[in-house]
TrEMBL record:
Subcellular localization(s) per the UniProt record: Cytoplasm
This enzyme's EC code(s): 3.1.1.29
Keyword Hydrolase: yes
Organism: Actinospica durhamensis
PROSITE patterns per UniProt: PEPT_TRNA_HYDROL_1, PEPT_TRNA_HYDROL_2
Protein name per the record: Peptidyl-tRNA hydrolase
UniProt lineage: Bacteria, Bacillati, Actinomycetota, Actinomycetes, Catenulisporales
Amino acid sequence: MNEPWLVVGLGNPGPGYAATRHNAGFMVADLLAERMAGRFKAGKGAAHVLEGRIAGERVVLVKPQSYMNLSGGPTVAAQNFYKVPLERIIVVHDELDIDFGALRLKRGGGDGGHNGLKSITKSLGSREYLRVRFGIGRPPGRQDPADFVLKPFASTEAKELPLNVDRAADAVEALLTGPLETAQNRYHGAAV
């Protein structure tokens, strides 16, 4: 099979959002780009794209530049341009319903109020893509989740963040090279 994988890291473009919880997907995509020894370039549609190999697999990394709520358009543009079948799409995103430091991998499911996933599902016309759900935890007290995701990680979280991003990138590699169930068994432990 010579079809590539499409790995989409979700986030918001611009330096003002770079260190925020909502940009966990961008952080993982950036680490994967480092592992590929490549640099993102402007691609088809509103996205930064990098083509290369990870673990022997042909991969197209995508960081939509359309802002989170419109991630579907750039994702589908890349899917169509590179002719990637739905079952070879992996979306990496922040997840409020998972504790900080924990990961969950799955295929399909709802969007859990995540507007990036909502946009991608609508644009693809299916929920049946793979997801790497990067736990960011729930906001403290009565803080609005919409505000919480656009804030930087707390200082205690920031210390652990590189390890969590590294683990999420490893989980993407596991999905590229083996079945979902094997990757789930390996990465669904407690938070690091």
